[in-house]
């Protein structure tokens, strides 16, 4: 099967679902059996899953140590990973490993323990990210939370399960002009 065929067919594949498994560390995924849904996940000849979605929600993860290595063990084409659900875990930051999956278009991080709004900036390198959730994290309480995210991730179309409107974008731009100071360049002083 060519890479093109894989991309076309795998979008419809069900997720590799490890939700509600009480997983503490990513390495546990290798020995844990994923949940079975109505349709089984297809596997390659080598036994790896042919899916673009990985659900790890409702566990007790507090970091993503070894995430890339484990995903490579589980998925035939980890570079095509498009949807990661890490909602309802104990993550305190957005691990930079998530920014290495350039085909990521859906990322659920709601219901975690992310405290610093600046963590969002890491996600700006993901060219295909369109849907993001962060509600239920301490950062949601920060003033300008929604506007900050929209300013820093202008390509997303859905945030916290709500579509982003033109009015949202306008409000975010106004908020940005009022709250984010531009970096000042050095002003040359004339020497007499």
From TrEMBL:
Any Pfam family hit: LRR_9
GO CC aspect terms: cytoplasm
Compartments it resides in: Cytoplasm
Key words, A-Z: Cytoplasm, Leucine-rich repeat, Repeat
Keyword Repeat: yes
Superkingdom of origin: Eukaryota
Matches recorded under InterPro entries: Leu-rich_rpt, LRR_dom_sf
Chief place where the protein resides: cytoplasm
Keyword Repeat: yes
Name the UniProt record assigns to this protein: Leucine-rich repeat-containing protein 51
Source organism of this protein record: Mesocricetus auratus (Golden hamster)
Species lineage: Eukaryota, Metazoa, Chordata, Craniata, Vertebrata
GN (gene name): Lrrc51
